């Protein structure tokens, strides 16, 4: 029996052992193949690493050279600099002032590229050199302020003043500039857009020291060399004792050249720029390139492979599980951000339309303007309408012309950064210009508007190819009056079309039209919105304005005055219906009064009374709701003031209102800020507990909603002038003396 059990145990032991032995044998058999393959992979990885570093240097330098090329192009096409090409006598007449003015203009160019040592303008006709700080004759400049150590003055003159003017890069050379020694790469860029007729050039001095820093980050000069060559293989900058390689050896954009006689036994890595065709060449000793390969050879493969298999399996499981969650979160985040980006233009258009219609009132205005990325601190606001009528009658051509004209107008708007001008398309052929001036007066805003209108109406008719109407509303200081200005601009535009007045038409210059009353839709919308908000002050101002324009400034017939009152009665009926006010005969009495009154101006006072009654009812409703809301908020604070995380956002969320409205509502109803109210409540509770409760100061701090004893003590001392401990001791001493 015992022998049978022992045989059974031995049998299972062997059955479990054999698979491990089999896999071990297989691992040992494959280890030789894996070993060789690992060496190849590590070697390739090292080469790729060096190629990656070389590509980083290439990308960095390509970016800097692109910035330099862009700056050179901007300078080369500056009109003030171009007009100096034809000057032959720079110091005669007004030429001197032109040269000095152009020199001052060089300071406006943004030279933040640390690779640029300096730049200058060479003029061939006048043989002058213009720099941001100096103006030289060429002969005085070379040798006195600037010279190449390896270039004579005659060779310098031939290169920059006599030979063909073209884009040119001179290799790194030592120079003396402004009394200091430098090593620079010189970049010559012809002025203007046609090099063959250019009589000047922009010369950029590129600091070769910055280029050498990049190259030294790749290799130690004692262990190898590196250089940068142009698309013909001419070396621009280098470190170490380099060997110039034939460009034919370096095929493709990137690659390697194994150690050989042409490379002096060095392993060469190269990359070619797709921007300018330059070669970036790095040569290193094979011992350095394959250092990791030699290290791998010294590692025992058996033990490493075992742990590697376990680690890879665990890493794969954990990473796969976690990465799926992270990937889902990132996908959701990017999708949400992309959707918000797509919706931003629609939201912007919607808000501007509401502004123009007068549908935004009260404190909502500031929030809306912030969502539009507008400065809410507006000192002057106005609206204007630009109407294009193309001469083309074919619909397809007409639409193309309108698209071109809209682009032309938006390009003009970019020239006025001092005042924010927002263009809003209300139709294919109409664009509303919204002027928003911050920290400027209405007069300055008016001057800006006039300058823009002059620029628009001054467009060459050959370029315009359309009838142009520009209508301007009045300028106001309150952002809420933008709808009023827009309504005035529409009236001015209608008058311009009626009279066929092309160009600019200002609302303030319109003649008094006695055959129409003033009650535009924008004013009606604002009036009803303010009434529904209970804003009696704004309602009174709007009614005063309507009365002033219709009964004092205009000589309207009685029939037109009565028509105005009928329309305002209709507005009152709509307001009452929307507010669900109890039905009454006030509006009917108003209509009856209008029909019977000898002077409709007297009946207008009844309109004032009805609007005042509506505002009073709305305010009473608000106060009733406000009392209930305030009691609920106080109850929430009383229940949770011991929670250290309690803040304004948390209470506003529980009360179901926005943070901004909660802050203004609480201050309006209680007379104190939320934070002060919460702190006073906590301090009142703390004083009671310090007098009556046996708890420690730390326990009292936690019960009162402070996260630490230090913050509680600082707050207590700031309010009461003494620390909690001294307060408790003084109270107890006073109680003891009373008992004695």
Automatic annotation (TrEMBL):
Keywords for the protein's UniProt record, in alphabetical order: DNA-binding, Transcription, Transcription regulation
One Pfam family, short name: HTH_18
Domain called HTH araC/xylS-type: residue spans: 631-730
PROSITE patterns: HTH_ARAC_FAMILY_1 (PS00041), HTH_ARAC_FAMILY_2 (PS01124)
tRNA processing keyword on record: no
Name under which the protein is recorded: Helix-turn-helix domain-containing protein
Coiled coil location: none
